[in-house]
Amino acid sequence: MERGRQAAARLGAGARAVQLDITDDASVQAAAKAIEADGGLDVLINNAGVEERGPGNAVIGPPT
Question: What is the pLDDT of residues 7-20, one digit of tens each?
Answer without folding.
Answer: 889 988 888 888 88
